Amino acid sequence: MNTYGRFPLALAKGKGCWVKDTQGRRYLDAVAGIATCTLGHSDRAMHRALRRQLGRLQHVSNLYQIPEQEQLASWLVNHSCADSVFFCNSGAEANEAAIKLARKHGHQRRGIEQPVILTAAASFHGRTLAAVTATGQPKYHKGFEPMVTGFDYFPYNDLSALEALINRYEQAGPSIAAVLVEPLQGEGGVNPGDRAFFSRLREICTQRNILLILDEVQVGMGRSGRLWGYEQLGITPDAFTLAKGLGGGHAIGALLVNASADVFEPGDHASTFGGNPFACRAGLTVATEIERRGLLNNVTARGEQLRDGLQELVKCFPEHLETVRGWGLLQGIVIRESSSWKAPQLAQAAIDQGLLLVAAGPSVLRMVPPLTINQREIRELLRRLAATLSSLS
Questions:
Q1: Structural domains in the chain, sorted by start
Q2: Active-site residue numbers?
C-alpha cells in the first residue's frame, strides 16, 4: 500500500555500518533501521546465534514456558529497575501494553473511573490508535479521528505547565493514571530530557501514586551511552518500554514493570508472537554482545566524537545550522528556522554522497548509527555530511 515516502534506493546487503544497493554502490549507514540494528548488519555473533536457534525452535506461543524468553527477561530485570517483563513485537505494542497497565492501575489502585494519561507535546509513541493518540503531534492524528479518549498533553520539559495540568485534573479527586514520556524525544526532534524536570516529575508521581512510564523504544539498550535513558536523568520509572535496539533488527518489544506497578493477571494481555524463541535469542545476543564488546564505552566515545564534529559543521554553516543535541549515538543537527534547508532534503542529498541519514521532523537531521561504529567510520560520516552540506550551499 502507498504508506511510505521511500527514497529511490533498494538495499541488497550489508556488513557492520555499511550497506550496498542493488547496483553495488556502498553507503555508510547512520540510520541503522532507525536506531534498530544495534550490532550493525550481518553481525557474526547474531548470525551464529540465530542460525543455531533456527535449528532448534522458532515459535511455540505463550501457552508454554519458553526458556529463551525467561533468560532474556532475567537479563533485563537484572540490569534494570524492573521486576517483570511482558514481551510483544514492537514499540507501539509495548506502549499499548503500558497504556492498558496504566488504566488498570488507575482503576484498581486509585479508584479512578475515567483514567487520564498525560504525554508530552512533540512526543512519538507509535502508530496504533491508542499509541498515536498518546503521540503529542496533531499531524499524526489527522484523518484518524475520533482519537482514543483519556489523553492530554503538556510541553516537554515544562515543569510549571505540567504541574498546572496535574492540579487541574486532580483538584476534584484522583483522575491521572500515568505520565508517559520519552527520556529523549527522538521523532520529535532529538530533544533530551531535563534532569530537574524529570526529578520533580518523579516526586510528583510518587506523592500522588501516578505511574511514571518512560518510552525507551528509541533510546534504550545502550544508545545513549548508558543502558537505559532514565540513567541519564538520575531517576527510576515505575515502568518503561523497549523495542528497536532490543532485537538488533528483529521484531521484539517489551514492557518492563516494577513490582508495585504490576497489576496484570492471566488473561489481561497477550501476544501470539511476543517473546518467541527466535526473537528472544536475538535479544539475548544483543544483550550479551553489548557487555562482551564494551559497547557502552564505545557509544560514549564515538558519541563525543560525533557531537564535536557536528559542532564544527555548525560553525562552518552558521547561516543554516543552529546547534547539535542528543545523547551518545542519537545525535541531531538543528536547522535554523530562517534557513531554506529542510531535514528531509538533507537526507536525500546525503544519499548522493554515499551516506544514509534520517530526518526527525522538518528541522532536525538525525544520526543513529549502529553501536559498533568505530572512530574511522565516524570521521567518514562527518566527511560525507560535510560534502553534502557543501553541495547544497
A1: 11-30+294-392 (3.90.1150.10), 46-292 (3.40.640.10)
A2: 124, 215, 244
- Separation of alpha carbons 91 and 255, rounded Å: 9
Distance CA 268, CA 97 (A): 10
What's residue 269's pLDDT?
98
Instruction: Look at residues 165, 92, 104 and name the one whose alpha carbon lies nearest to residue 130.
Output: 92
Q: Select from 131, 50, 117 the least CA-distant residue to 88.
A: 131
Q: Report the distance separating Cα 322 and Cα 45, nearest Å.
A: 40
The pTM of this model reads 0.97
Percentage with pLDDT > 90 across the chain: 99
Strand pairing class (253-257; 191-192): unpaired
33 backbone dihedrals φ, ψ, rounded to 5°: 65, 30
- Alpha helices, DSSP H, located in 25-87: 32-35, 44-54, 67-78
Q: Tell which residue, 279, 326, 39, 73, has the closest CA to residue 182.
A: 326
Q: What are phi and psi of 241, to 5 degrees?
A: -115, 150
Strand partners, 358: 366
Taking residues 78-101, what's their average pLDDT? 98
Three-state DSSP state, 118:
strand
Query: Three-state DSSP class for 353?
Result: coil
What is the DSSP pairing of strand 184-185 with strand 191-192? antiparallel
Position 287: which residue type? A
Question: Can you tell me the mean pLDDT for 93-122?
Answer: 97
For 264-293, give the secondary structure using H, E and C. Answer: CCCCCCCCCCCCCHHHHHHHHHHHHHHHHC
Q: What is the DSSP letter of 130?
A: H
pLDDT digits (tens, 9 = 90+) for 144-178: 999 999 999 999 999 999 999 999 999 989 999 99
